[in-house]
Amino acid sequence: MAAQSGALYLGFDLSTQQLKAIVITSDLKVLYEAKTDFDADLSKYGIKKGVFVKEETRAVYAPVAMWLEAVDIVLQRLKDKGTPFERIKGISGAGQQHGSVYWNKTGEELLGKLKPDETLVDQLAKTAFAHPFSPNWQDGSTQKECDKFDAQLGSAEELAQITGSKAHHRFTGPQIMRMHENHPDVYRATSRITLVSSFLASVFLGRIAPFDISDVCGMNLWDINAGAWSEPLLKLAAGVDGLESLKQKLGTVREDGGGSMGPISTYFVSRYGFPSDCGIAPFTGDNPATILSLPLRPLDAIVSLGTSTTFLMSTPKYVPDPAYHFFNHPTTAGLYMFMLCYKNGGLAREKIRDSLPKSTTTDSWSTFNEIALATPPLGQNSPTDPANLGLFFPLPEIVPNVRSGTWRYTCMSDGSKLEESANGWSSEADARAIVESQILSLRLRSQKLVHSPAAGIPPQPRRIYLVGGGSLNPAIARIVGDVLGGVEGVWKLDVGGNACALGGAYKAVWAIERNEGESFEELIGERWKASEAIEKVDDGYRPDIWAKYGNVLGSFEEMEGKVLAGEERNKK
Ligand SMILES: Nc1ncnc2c1ncn2[C@@H]1O[C@H](COP(=O)(O)OP(=O)(O)O)[C@@H](O)[C@H]1O
Ligand SMILES: O=C(CO)[C@@H](O)[C@H](O)COP(=O)(O)O
């Protein structure tokens, strides 16, 4: 039974395929959840899996109007479930990272005077934006711009040192540069640029919200150590229009991840009955919000199995490298978020699932799971059998930066005799091989970040938390434990695919209720009850099996190297 009184907090997650919302109490109990699924509810926009794809240029983008429509739909759904909006004291949330929204002057003005009897989409879609689309994080159209970004500060290493990442296709700086080059008219008609997180915050605030201190690190434009825009990078992106043009469009970055940026726009007060003093806390990126969905300790890792796969850790050490990403922590100065991000996550697994015989149960994953669990590690029935190692990239991948394709290799148990498999293997064997491949890549790239969690235990995460849609899958949980370990086991959040929206809601609680100087970890750590929030889904570290994967890790890296060497741009 929902409590009848007391403050409530609302968290959003504007991700690739859905807009999710979650309402919780001050003591972190989940009361209401609702979502708008873009393909199911808004297919009239012509998108697939939430986006448009232009194969010729590898451009991927989403219509901003669809997101506006999704906001009114999800709030109406919460209302239909009886959500007492009048008790909501604070709102925060998250947006898929890197995407940019190009507002014009009219849009800035309209935001503050929306009529409550008309929808957001009807009032804003046609007039408020200099460009109707937002480049999506799956975009691969900016190689040329990335090369210039990597060169601008001297090298990819230096760019990573300054901004937390080397240049990536999806990062906002290279995307803005491409927009400036291809559509200078759009660039010039733009008065403000927001990220997806600050776009959603702006809609609720009724004016353009500043960037968030964590999400801004996904732009390749922010100097993390200096806490300021990197002027050489801004200059590069703005081209002939000059540094000042871009500075104005970007506006400010809010250093404090908490507090209120201001009260909610009157549109939502009149239309849905929010209280006029409901505070809008800074929104952040979906990955930074995910690390706020539980009090994460050093050496704990989160594997987010959404459309993308990401691997997240919170750490006090800033050790950037071109191979991964560092972001400011969304709430706590002096902490950082370490991240790996893969394009080929959920959709690549779905592709293999769909090539198998159809499931006979209502769970579309049951055949995939049965086969994956019945297949021995690395497909080896005996230690002398060849071990299967594959790469399954229906989309061009981020790590490593290679074209789309499928590669099947084998090696011996000790990693020797790595060779491309002449005849491949059965499609059944792919079910286990794709999950192993995705998790081996996480193990390979997080090796330097982990240390021994206890005497006599090799370096690995302490606990592994699974979140996102794929966290509901027991076979994936088992294989994560097999490959990555986790000496205190593999866990999932009870909130399932809604961890990111939950992180947003926790952020809202902390932002509005914190005492002077009280950290997110202190406030949420005190109120969070593990028994109500998480469930152990696998024992994690099994020494023999974990060692088996360790023996082929070098060959896995070598296989990636061979595939990378075959890339046209790497052939000399
Ligand atoms: N039982 C399941 N097993 C494996 N994957 C699943 C399962 N349920 C959902 N998924 C995957 O979850 C993905 C969506 O995850 P979600 O975290 O909601 O995505 P996003 O936040 O990126 O929109 C889908 O692409 C689907 O493949
Ligand atoms: O590009 C990244 C992170 O760098 C992605 O993780 C996006 O932030 C989208 O995530 P999901 O839609 O999969 O949640």
From TrEMBL:
Reaction catalysed by this enzyme: D-xylulose + ATP = D-xylulose 5-phosphate + ADP + H(+)
GO biological process: one example: xylulose metabolic process
Entry GO terms, CC: cytosol
Domain Carbohydrate kinase FGGY N-terminal per the UniProt entry, residue ranges: 137-238
CDD domains: ASKHA_NBD_FGGY_SpXK-like
InterPro entries: ATPase_NBD, D-XK_euk, FGGY_C, FGGY_N
Enzyme Commission number(s) from the entry: 2.7.1.17
Enzyme class name: transferase
Family annotation (PANTHER family): SUGAR KINASE (PTHR10196), XYLULOSE KINASE (PTHR10196:SF57)
Record-given protein name: Xylulose kinase
Species assigned in the record: Hyaloscypha variabilis (strain UAMH 11265 / GT02V1 / F)
